[in-house]
Automatic annotation (TrEMBL):
InterPro entries: AA_transpt_TM (IPR013057). It comes from Dioscorea zingiberensis. One of its GO terms (cellular component) is membrane. Residues 39-430 form the Amino acid transporter transmembrane domain. The keyword Mitochondrion does not apply. This is Amino acid transporter transmembrane domain-containing protein. Keywords: Amino-acid transport, Membrane, Transmembrane, Transmembrane helix, Transport.
Amino acid sequence: MATGVNIIDVDKEKFQLEDRLELEAEDDHTAHQISNDPWYQVGFILTTAVNSAYVLGYSGSIMVPLGWIAGTTGLVLAAAISLYANVLLGRLHELGGKRHIRYRDLAGHIYGRKMYALTWSLQYVNLFMINTGYIILAGQALKAIYILYRDDHVLKLPYCIAIAGIVCAMFAFGIPHLSALRIWLGVSTFLGLIYIITASVLSLRDGINAPVRDYSIPGTHASKIFSTIGAVANLVFAYNTGMLPEIQATVRPPVIKNMEKALWLQFTIGGLPLYAVTFMGYWAYGSSTSTYLLNSVDGPVWVKLMANVAVFLQTVIALHIFASPMYEYLDTEYGRAKGNSFSFHNFGFRVLVRGGYLTINTLVAALLPFLGDFMSLTGALSTIPLTFVLANHMYLVVKKNKLPALRKAWHWLNVMGFSCLAVAAAVAALRLIIVDSRTYHLFADL
């Protein structure tokens, strides 16, 4: 009987090994560039993602529900925990003597084919929703520009979203892969500084001239509980991409050391603009702070115009970062021939396939411009599991008995704690969707 059990165990291990080898054989190639970028370029990619136009909403979506003490403490703690989780994930990049250039590759190597498929599904749903959110942000910036000059409701938000989708597609056609962003990362940083500095300075001026602000947390006791959970989920979203292995794939060797340099750049210097605009906006307007800070500030029309144009253009660049895993998959599996990225075949493929993907994004964005509710749900079901639950558990599985008991307990605490947070955030997001569905309608002009 024992012999039979041993045979079953051996066969099971053999099957799992063959499963992993098959996955690694499938994922050995890519149409995009690998090991091409210096660490600081990767650091700018991460910083661009962190300081995208989403930062203009953190005063309203994080500070207002949490207040000064919990909001400030939460931002600092979320940064520290996110840095720790991303460093863990980065150190698994060369597991088994092989680079794992996609999140699903790493999960498949550790767990097998089922986790490979689940990780892939979670990641791409997450990135699709983030991309759709970027198109909504770009559309809102265009609508804000229009309102500066004419508030006649002729140019509606769905029209602005359609224009934004077209511009995002045109940019995607011309940038074949993530490494090709190069100078655009500098442009993105410059644009980000424009809207962050503008929003901060105008908020400072308004705050100095404003009467005493109300910093009390709005809502009933029940609504405060759900808004607090949602704000904690937003803290997680603020610092994390959900695609760290794909970004790490572009960095030059030594890949772990260089990735850690890039992460330290992101979480130190790269985080300062986020803190500045978030705290300044909340200080100036208190609990009445808008979830798009440029809608709260007063100032010269040309200054607000410049800031909103910068938001629009930076969003186009930031979207490309989060869409790059989908582009890499499509290029590798279906299209890109070797040779010049701008050959007729390769450029035509990008126009057809990326154009189709972004058309779907744009349609969803125009259909559901209150997508923030759905993004909260997606973050709960994918961003938190991918960034914290999976990273800590993979590290436990890989290290096994090499970790001391205290370290094991710490990782298990992270796994269990963030699993509970994911469930709570999902419940809060579902409640928000139900409440807002009574107010908003499809193709709403918000």
